[in-house]
Design brief:
The chain is mainly alpha-helical. It contains 15 helices and six strands. Helix 4 packs antiparallel against helix 5.
Protein backbone atom coordinates (compact mmCIF):
# COMPACT_ATOMS: atom_id res chain seq x y z
CA UNK A 1 0.00 0.00 0.00
CA UNK A 2 2.80 2.42 0.89
CA UNK A 3 4.53 1.59 -2.38
CA UNK A 4 1.39 2.42 -4.36
CA UNK A 5 1.02 5.72 -2.52
CA UNK A 6 4.65 6.58 -3.22
CA UNK A 7 4.19 5.84 -6.91
CA UNK A 8 1.04 7.97 -7.04
CA UNK A 9 2.73 10.81 -5.18
CA UNK A 10 5.76 10.66 -7.46
CA UNK A 11 3.56 10.63 -10.55
CA UNK A 12 1.54 13.60 -9.29
CA UNK A 13 4.66 15.62 -8.52
CA UNK A 14 6.11 14.79 -11.94
CA UNK A 15 2.85 15.76 -13.67
CA UNK A 16 2.66 19.11 -11.87
CA UNK A 17 6.36 19.81 -12.46
CA UNK A 18 6.15 19.13 -16.21
CA UNK A 19 3.07 21.33 -16.57
CA UNK A 20 4.73 24.19 -14.70
CA UNK A 21 7.97 23.89 -16.66
CA UNK A 22 6.33 23.71 -20.11
CA UNK A 23 6.70 27.39 -21.16
CA UNK A 24 10.31 27.56 -19.94
CA UNK A 25 11.61 24.48 -21.77
CA UNK A 26 11.90 24.51 -25.55
CA UNK A 27 11.11 20.83 -26.05
CA UNK A 28 8.12 20.84 -23.70
CA UNK A 29 6.75 24.07 -25.19
CA UNK A 30 6.99 22.80 -28.77
CA UNK A 31 5.43 19.47 -27.81
CA UNK A 32 2.61 21.28 -26.06
CA UNK A 33 1.90 23.57 -29.03
CA UNK A 34 2.21 20.82 -31.66
CA UNK A 35 -0.16 18.55 -29.77
CA UNK A 36 -2.64 21.35 -29.12
CA UNK A 37 -2.69 22.16 -32.82
CA UNK A 38 -3.28 18.50 -33.67
CA UNK A 39 -6.17 18.18 -31.21
CA UNK A 40 -7.88 21.46 -32.10
CA UNK A 41 -7.49 20.89 -35.82
CA UNK A 42 -9.29 17.55 -35.59
CA UNK A 43 -11.97 19.09 -33.40
CA UNK A 44 -12.65 21.96 -35.80
CA UNK A 45 -12.57 19.61 -38.79
CA UNK A 46 -15.38 17.70 -37.07
CA UNK A 47 -17.46 20.90 -37.05
CA UNK A 48 -16.96 22.06 -33.49
CA UNK A 49 -16.78 25.65 -34.71
CA UNK A 50 -20.50 25.31 -35.47
CA UNK A 51 -21.11 24.10 -31.92
CA UNK A 52 -19.23 27.13 -30.62
CA UNK A 53 -21.42 29.35 -32.78
CA UNK A 54 -24.43 28.05 -30.86
CA UNK A 55 -22.73 29.01 -27.57
CA UNK A 56 -21.21 32.36 -28.48
CA UNK A 57 -22.50 35.13 -30.81
CA UNK A 58 -19.33 35.00 -32.93
CA UNK A 59 -18.08 31.54 -31.99
CA UNK A 60 -17.48 30.20 -35.49
CA UNK A 61 -15.51 33.21 -36.72
CA UNK A 62 -13.58 33.71 -33.49
CA UNK A 63 -12.50 30.06 -33.13
CA UNK A 64 -11.35 29.74 -36.75
CA UNK A 65 -9.59 33.11 -36.70
CA UNK A 66 -7.67 32.57 -33.46
CA UNK A 67 -6.67 29.04 -34.45
CA UNK A 68 -5.44 30.20 -37.86
CA UNK A 69 -3.49 33.10 -36.31
CA UNK A 70 -1.92 30.73 -33.78
CA UNK A 71 -0.61 28.47 -36.54
CA UNK A 72 0.63 31.40 -38.63
CA UNK A 73 2.48 32.92 -35.67
CA UNK A 74 3.93 29.56 -34.63
CA UNK A 75 5.08 28.81 -38.18
CA UNK A 76 7.01 32.08 -38.20
CA UNK A 77 9.11 30.73 -35.34
CA UNK A 78 9.99 27.59 -37.29
CA UNK A 79 12.98 27.52 -39.62
CA UNK A 80 10.99 25.71 -42.30
CA UNK A 81 7.29 26.28 -43.07
CA UNK A 82 5.33 23.04 -42.98
CA UNK A 83 2.78 22.19 -45.65
CA UNK A 84 0.46 20.58 -43.08
CA UNK A 85 0.19 23.89 -41.21
CA UNK A 86 -0.65 25.72 -44.43
CA UNK A 87 -3.36 23.17 -45.18
CA UNK A 88 -4.84 23.79 -41.74
CA UNK A 89 -4.83 27.55 -42.27
CA UNK A 90 -6.34 27.15 -45.75
CA UNK A 91 -9.19 25.14 -44.26
CA UNK A 92 -9.85 27.67 -41.51
CA UNK A 93 -9.88 30.59 -43.95
CA UNK A 94 -12.30 28.77 -46.21
CA UNK A 95 -14.55 28.40 -43.18
CA UNK A 96 -14.17 32.10 -42.37
CA UNK A 97 -15.22 33.23 -45.84
CA UNK A 98 -18.06 30.73 -46.04
CA UNK A 99 -21.72 31.71 -46.21
CA UNK A 100 -22.29 29.95 -42.90
CA UNK A 101 -19.71 32.13 -41.11
CA UNK A 102 -21.32 35.29 -42.49
CA UNK A 103 -24.85 34.21 -41.55
CA UNK A 104 -24.58 35.66 -38.01
CA UNK A 105 -23.80 39.12 -39.33
CA UNK A 106 -25.75 41.73 -41.30
CA UNK A 107 -24.74 42.20 -44.92
CA UNK A 108 -26.45 45.60 -45.27
CA UNK A 109 -23.77 47.40 -43.30
CA UNK A 110 -20.75 49.48 -44.15
CA UNK A 111 -18.49 47.56 -44.44
CA UNK A 112 -20.72 44.57 -45.23
CA UNK A 113 -21.14 42.20 -42.26
CA UNK A 114 -19.70 44.73 -39.83
CA UNK A 115 -16.41 45.44 -38.09
CA UNK A 116 -16.00 42.13 -36.23
CA UNK A 117 -16.42 39.85 -39.22
CA UNK A 118 -14.55 42.04 -41.69
CA UNK A 119 -11.75 42.82 -39.26
CA UNK A 120 -10.94 39.32 -38.07
CA UNK A 121 -11.17 37.72 -41.52
CA UNK A 122 -9.03 40.43 -43.05
CA UNK A 123 -6.46 40.20 -40.25
CA UNK A 124 -6.09 36.46 -40.76
CA UNK A 125 -5.68 36.97 -44.51
CA UNK A 126 -3.13 39.76 -44.05
CA UNK A 127 -1.13 37.78 -41.48
CA UNK A 128 -1.09 34.71 -43.72
CA UNK A 129 -0.14 36.56 -46.91
CA UNK A 130 2.73 38.36 -45.15
CA UNK A 131 4.07 35.16 -43.52
CA UNK A 132 6.64 32.68 -44.80
CA UNK A 133 3.99 29.98 -44.48
CA UNK A 134 2.04 31.48 -47.39
CA UNK A 135 4.46 29.87 -49.83
CA UNK A 136 2.71 26.57 -49.03
CA UNK A 137 -0.80 27.99 -49.51
CA UNK A 138 -2.99 26.16 -52.04
CA UNK A 139 -5.23 29.18 -52.77
CA UNK A 140 -2.82 32.10 -53.06
CA UNK A 141 -4.69 34.22 -55.59
CA UNK A 142 -8.08 33.54 -54.03
CA UNK A 143 -6.93 34.70 -50.62
CA UNK A 144 -5.05 37.71 -52.02
CA UNK A 145 -8.21 38.79 -53.83
CA UNK A 146 -10.26 38.37 -50.66
CA UNK A 147 -7.80 40.49 -48.68
CA UNK A 148 -7.77 43.18 -51.37
CA UNK A 149 -11.57 43.34 -51.43
CA UNK A 150 -11.99 43.49 -47.66
CA UNK A 151 -9.24 46.09 -47.29
CA UNK A 152 -10.84 48.21 -49.99
CA UNK A 153 -14.19 48.09 -48.20
CA UNK A 154 -12.67 49.17 -44.89
CA UNK A 155 -10.66 51.99 -46.46
CA UNK A 156 -13.67 53.24 -48.42
CA UNK A 157 -15.71 53.60 -45.23
CA UNK A 158 -12.97 55.66 -43.58
CA UNK A 159 -11.79 57.64 -46.59
CA UNK A 160 -14.02 60.72 -46.19
CA UNK A 161 -14.19 60.99 -42.39
CA UNK A 162 -13.08 58.61 -39.67
CA UNK A 163 -15.89 56.90 -37.81
CA UNK A 164 -16.32 54.10 -35.29
CA UNK A 165 -17.58 51.08 -37.22
CA UNK A 166 -20.51 49.00 -36.00
CA UNK A 167 -20.32 45.27 -35.44
CA UNK A 168 -24.10 45.02 -35.58
CA UNK A 169 -26.49 47.80 -36.64
CA UNK A 170 -26.33 50.48 -33.94
CA UNK A 171 -23.74 48.69 -31.79
CA UNK A 172 -19.98 49.05 -31.82
CA UNK A 173 -17.03 47.69 -29.87
CA UNK A 174 -13.63 49.47 -30.03
CA UNK A 175 -11.82 46.12 -29.91
CA UNK A 176 -13.49 45.08 -33.15
CA UNK A 177 -12.47 48.40 -34.71
CA UNK A 178 -8.86 47.82 -33.72
CA UNK A 179 -8.84 44.42 -35.38
CA UNK A 180 -10.07 46.06 -38.58
CA UNK A 181 -7.54 48.88 -38.12
CA UNK A 182 -4.50 46.61 -38.03
CA UNK A 183 -5.84 44.49 -40.90
CA UNK A 184 -5.15 47.32 -43.36
CA UNK A 185 -1.93 49.11 -44.29
CA UNK A 186 -3.05 52.71 -44.77
CA UNK A 187 -1.04 54.42 -42.02
CA UNK A 188 -2.89 57.75 -42.24
CA UNK A 189 -6.28 56.10 -41.74
CA UNK A 190 -4.86 53.93 -38.98
CA UNK A 191 -3.45 56.93 -37.12
CA UNK A 192 -6.66 58.95 -37.36
CA UNK A 193 -8.80 55.94 -36.52
CA UNK A 194 -6.85 55.22 -33.35
CA UNK A 195 -7.10 58.88 -32.32
CA UNK A 196 -10.85 58.75 -32.84
CA UNK A 197 -11.17 55.70 -30.59
CA UNK A 198 -9.35 57.48 -27.76
CA UNK A 199 -11.31 60.68 -28.37
CA UNK A 200 -14.63 58.81 -28.15
CA UNK A 201 -13.78 57.23 -24.79
CA UNK A 202 -14.96 59.03 -21.65
CA UNK A 203 -13.24 56.76 -19.14
CA UNK A 204 -11.46 58.24 -16.14
CA UNK A 205 -8.44 56.24 -17.29
CA UNK A 206 -6.53 57.19 -20.47
CA UNK A 207 -7.73 53.88 -21.91
CA UNK A 208 -10.21 52.88 -24.62
CA UNK A 209 -13.69 51.88 -23.45
CA UNK A 210 -15.34 48.48 -23.75
CA UNK A 211 -18.48 49.15 -25.79
CA UNK A 212 -19.94 52.16 -27.60
CA UNK A 213 -23.10 52.21 -25.49
CA UNK A 214 -20.99 52.71 -22.32
CA UNK A 215 -18.12 54.97 -23.29
CA UNK A 216 -17.13 55.52 -19.66
CA UNK A 217 -16.52 51.83 -18.92
CA UNK A 218 -13.18 50.07 -19.25
CA UNK A 219 -13.19 46.30 -18.72
CA UNK A 220 -10.41 43.80 -18.17
CA UNK A 221 -11.24 41.36 -20.94
CA UNK A 222 -11.56 43.90 -23.74
CA UNK A 223 -8.68 46.04 -22.47
CA UNK A 224 -6.27 43.11 -22.54
CA UNK A 225 -7.20 42.50 -26.17
CA UNK A 226 -7.18 46.21 -27.06
CA UNK A 227 -3.65 46.76 -25.73
CA UNK A 228 -2.41 43.68 -27.61
CA UNK A 229 -3.93 45.01 -30.82
CA UNK A 230 -2.48 48.49 -30.29
CA UNK A 231 0.93 46.90 -29.79
CA UNK A 232 0.72 45.47 -33.31
CA UNK A 233 0.45 49.03 -34.65
CA UNK A 234 2.06 51.34 -32.06
CA UNK A 235 4.26 49.49 -29.57
CA UNK A 236 5.17 52.56 -27.50
CA UNK A 237 1.55 53.60 -27.15
CA UNK A 238 0.65 50.09 -26.00
CA UNK A 239 3.42 50.23 -23.39
CA UNK A 240 2.01 53.50 -22.00
CA UNK A 241 -1.52 52.11 -21.84
CA UNK A 242 -0.21 48.96 -20.23
CA UNK A 243 1.15 50.96 -17.29
CA UNK A 244 -2.38 52.19 -16.48
CA UNK A 245 -3.81 48.73 -17.13
CA UNK A 246 -1.35 47.04 -14.80
CA UNK A 247 -1.77 49.53 -11.97
CA UNK A 248 -5.58 49.44 -12.03
CA UNK A 249 -6.62 46.02 -13.28
CA UNK A 250 -3.84 43.51 -12.61
CA UNK A 251 -3.00 41.90 -9.28
CA UNK A 252 0.21 39.95 -8.87
CA UNK A 253 0.32 36.87 -6.61
CA UNK A 254 3.71 35.17 -6.42
CA UNK A 255 4.54 36.23 -9.97
CA UNK A 256 1.15 35.15 -11.36
CA UNK A 257 -1.09 37.89 -12.79
CA UNK A 258 -4.87 37.93 -12.37
CA UNK A 259 -6.96 40.54 -14.16
CA UNK A 260 -10.05 42.22 -12.74
CA UNK A 261 -13.00 42.34 -15.13
CA UNK A 262 -14.76 45.29 -13.45
CA UNK A 263 -13.45 48.06 -11.21
CA UNK A 264 -16.28 50.28 -10.09
CA UNK A 265 -18.95 47.67 -9.43
CA UNK A 266 -19.14 43.94 -8.99
CA UNK A 267 -21.14 42.88 -12.04
CA UNK A 268 -21.99 39.33 -13.01
CA UNK A 269 -20.11 37.38 -15.64
CA UNK A 270 -21.25 37.63 -19.26
CA UNK A 271 -20.30 36.35 -22.71
CA UNK A 272 -17.40 38.79 -22.97
CA UNK A 273 -15.90 38.12 -19.54
CA UNK A 274 -16.29 34.37 -19.23
CA UNK A 275 -16.34 33.13 -15.62
CA UNK A 276 -15.53 35.79 -13.02
CA UNK A 277 -14.07 34.47 -9.77
CA UNK A 278 -13.48 36.84 -6.85
CA UNK A 279 -13.67 39.68 -9.34
CA UNK A 280 -11.02 38.24 -11.65
CA UNK A 281 -12.10 37.46 -15.19
CA UNK A 282 -11.11 34.23 -16.91
CA UNK A 283 -11.05 35.76 -20.40
CA UNK A 284 -9.16 38.82 -19.17
CA UNK A 285 -6.52 36.76 -17.36
CA UNK A 286 -5.89 34.44 -20.30
CA UNK A 287 -5.85 37.21 -22.91
CA UNK A 288 -3.49 39.22 -20.71
CA UNK A 289 -0.89 36.46 -21.04
CA UNK A 290 -0.59 37.11 -24.76
CA UNK A 291 -0.69 40.85 -24.25
CA UNK A 292 2.08 40.91 -21.66
CA UNK A 293 4.18 38.44 -23.65
CA UNK A 294 3.86 40.66 -26.74
CA UNK A 295 5.14 43.55 -24.58
CA UNK A 296 8.05 41.36 -23.43
CA UNK A 297 6.84 41.09 -19.84
CA UNK A 298 8.40 38.01 -18.23
CA UNK A 299 5.51 37.26 -15.84
CA UNK A 300 3.40 36.10 -18.78
CA UNK A 301 5.13 32.72 -18.68
CA UNK A 302 4.39 32.35 -14.98
CA UNK A 303 0.68 32.92 -15.50
CA UNK A 304 0.49 30.57 -18.48
CA UNK A 305 2.37 27.88 -16.54
CA UNK A 306 -0.03 28.23 -13.61
CA UNK A 307 -3.14 27.95 -15.80
CA UNK A 308 -1.54 25.10 -17.73
CA UNK A 309 -1.13 23.19 -14.48
CA UNK A 310 -4.49 24.21 -12.98
CA UNK A 311 -6.49 23.17 -16.05
CA UNK A 312 -5.48 19.49 -15.82
CA UNK A 313 -4.07 19.04 -19.34
CA UNK A 314 -3.96 15.62 -20.96
CA UNK A 315 -1.06 15.54 -23.39
CA UNK A 316 -0.77 12.08 -24.98
CA UNK A 317 -1.01 10.40 -28.38
CA UNK A 318 -0.07 13.60 -30.27
CA UNK A 319 -2.97 15.54 -28.79
CA UNK A 320 -3.36 17.92 -25.88
CA UNK A 321 -6.57 19.18 -24.34
CA UNK A 322 -7.72 20.95 -21.17
CA UNK A 323 -10.62 20.68 -18.72
CA UNK A 324 -11.64 17.19 -19.89
CA UNK A 325 -12.55 18.60 -23.33
CA UNK A 326 -15.37 20.65 -21.80
CA UNK A 327 -14.30 24.14 -22.96
CA UNK A 328 -12.31 24.11 -26.23
CA UNK A 329 -12.47 27.92 -26.49
CA UNK A 330 -10.18 27.93 -23.45
CA UNK A 331 -7.84 25.58 -25.36
CA UNK A 332 -7.77 27.96 -28.32
CA UNK A 333 -6.92 30.97 -26.16
CA UNK A 334 -4.21 29.01 -24.34
CA UNK A 335 -2.72 28.05 -27.71
CA UNK A 336 -2.83 31.63 -28.99
CA UNK A 337 -1.08 32.75 -25.80
CA UNK A 338 1.48 29.93 -25.92
CA UNK A 339 2.80 30.85 -29.36
CA UNK A 340 3.63 34.32 -28.01
CA UNK A 341 5.73 33.09 -25.07
Amino acid sequence: MNKILRILATGTILYITINLLTPYNGFLRERSIDNQINYLNKLLDQGYDNTLQNRYPEGKVFSNALFALSIIEYAQQSQKPQKKWAQMVDTRINQLISKKARATFVEEMNPPYGAFYTGWVNLVLKSYIESDLFVECASKQKFKDQHTQLTKKIVQVQSDSIRILDTYPGSNWPGDNLVALISISDTQIQENWLKQLYKTSESKFPLIHHVGSRVHEVRGSSQALIIYLIAQYDFKKAEKDNIHFQSNFIDNFLGIEFVKEHLEKNEDADIDSGPVILGYGAAATIMNIKTQASLQQKKAKNTWAFLNMLSCPINIFNGKYYLLKQEPMFDIFMLWAAVEL
